[in-house]
Amino acid sequence: MLDALKPQPQDKILQLIAMYRDDPRTQKIDLGVGVYKDATGLTPVMRAVKAAEKKLWEDETTKTYTALAGDPAFSAAMVGMILGEGFADRAAAVATPGGTGAIRQALELIKLAAPGATVWISAPTWPNHPSIIKYLGMAMAEYRYFDEATRGVDFAGLMADLAKVKAGDAVLLHGCCHNPTGANLTLDQWAEVVKLLADKGAVPLVDLAYQGFGDGLDEDAAATRLIAGAFPEVLIAASCSKNFGIYRERTGILIALTSPERKAVVQGNLNFLNRQNYSFPPDHGARLVTMILGDAALAADWKAELEEVRQNMLGLRQQLADEFRRATNSDRYDFVATHRGMFSRLGLSEAQVNRLRDEHGIYMVGDSRINIAGLNAKTVPILAAAIAAVGG
Ligand code: LMR
Question: Which of 117, 220, 242, 386 is catalytic?
Answer without folding.
Answer: 242
